Amino acid sequence: MVSLRDIRKRLQSIQNIQQLTKAMEMVAASRLHHVQMKVKQSRPYVNKIKDILDQLSQVASTDYCHPLLEQREVKKVGVVVIAADMGLSGSYNKDVFSATNKFLKSYKQDQVELILVGRKAVEYYRRRSWPIRYELEEWGEKLTQQQVMTFANDLVSWFLLGELDEVWFVYTHYITMMSRKVVVEKFLNISQSSKEESKGAAEYLFEPAPQEIYGAILLRYCLTKVQTTLNEAYASELAARIFAMKAATTNADDMIEKLTLVRNKVRQAGITKEMLEITSGAEGLK
After folding, report:
1. Which of 75, 152, 172, 246 is the most exposed place for a label (fewest CB within 10 A)?
2. Residue 136 belongs to what domain range?
3. The domain that contains 94 carries what CATH number?
4. Cβ pair 222, 155 in contact under 8 A
5. Quick check: pTM over 0.85?
6. 72-124 pLDDT, tens per residue?
7. Is residue 202 part of a domain?
């Protein structure tokens, strides 16, 4: 039978882990509230910029094509994989890697270069044979606006210089606390809505001429899209961590309850044994 001392040690260990999971849940919840606000504010902004771009494409001269809109023969594809810096977030990282691997099956190895965001993505794909162009291990709360701008500018530069012919994002889209979805989404080249799709959109008067402001708005869209995508992924990670830590805390409660019952039974058995020994000894002295 397991000793009372061993049970107490195990109980203490589980209680310590439970304190840790509760603390991690609270920290993630606090951060999620902040990131949720960013996601809610940035989505309409990105949609509005895209709407303006669609309007610009309709009024700009038909022979005008910005390099970021250019469709060319696909020789090299950049795949931005956004995962977490740490584990303890349920199936969050696993789902991202599963979607990425499924997408990569469409290409040969020499056609793809991975752009990895998050320590878990770096650790996972360093053990695989896919070529890696860029690694960003620490992000989330630690990522500054300047770093986001640099990252977005790098993606745009690689496309404009012809080093990458397409850039895709694989990330987790945040829906609600309990719901999220891994998305494989094309970032570059930027696709334009057709005239029929843009027909119902609001119309704008542009000054200066559309051709003159097209490039600036495209670059603004790229930066905002990168920022929003990172926010979506981080919010999803935090929500997954809250759910995982809450489940771990509940499981710890169940284990503590069962071990407490076992401890009490062992203690009771020990007391009963001692009483029997005392009784037997007393009988022997008669």
Report:
1. 75
2. 26-50+63-192+218-238
3. 3.40.1380.10
4. yes
5. no
6. 889 999 999 999 988 888 899 999 999 999 999 999 999 999 999 999 999 99
7. no
